[in-house]
Amino acid sequence: MRKSHPLRRVVLATAGTVSAVVLLLSLKPSSDPTSASAAGAAPSAAAAGQESPQGGTGAAGATTVTGDATQTQYGVVQVRLTVANGKITQAEAVQAPKGGTSDQKTALSVPQLNKETVAAQSANIDSVSGATYTSTGYKQSLQSALDKMKEAAASSSSGSSSSSGSGSSSGSSSSGSAQAQAKTVTGQVAQTQYGAVQVRITVSGGKITKAEAVQAPKGGLSDQKTALAVPKLNQEAVAAGNATIDSVSGATYTSTGYKQSLQSALDQAGG
Question: What is the pLDDT of residue 38?
Fold first, then answer.
């Protein structure tokens, strides 16, 4: 029995050595620098794949135009347009009334107004029932964004025509200069009994091409009178080309303040 003890020790030692070798071989792949570098490269490749769709030639050709902020009875409305190849591809309200019932009306009206804008490609869209003030403010800011879009397009076409060379006709040259002379002038604020009135006009070729009230009485009955009077006054200002326009019945104070601010804007524009 005593002679068998050394043999047993040899067998046990050999088994221990084999086990150690097996453990070393099983641990070696986890420390392989090649597999480690491959694991680190995978997230980078995935990140690159996520970033590439955000760029590209399609995104580079699109421009964003933000209209003026329009104050309504329940809050500010401001519209931003994404334009590509001269067409509106996206419309969104970067500002809209919020708080209380305004949250529900905004959630109801803004998505519809956005869709109608893209479909109509203009500010001639229907107001959303139950959200009249938000709809009106949306359309005003939308029209402002469209005007900016047109001005940018006119400036671009004017620049391209001027660089077309001396062989261009005199007619196209005069057209480019007329577009370049278009400017926007804001009259002084006229204080009325019911609130401030301020008019902004766009003048091109010595004529008023657009008139709008950037400030007007608001709150209570003033909202109705402003909604009734200002669009008519804007149209009359463009048609008359001066401040000699008729007051709107039922909105005498607003009409008077409008004409005063309009005259101020005309004076700044050079008559």
Answer: 37
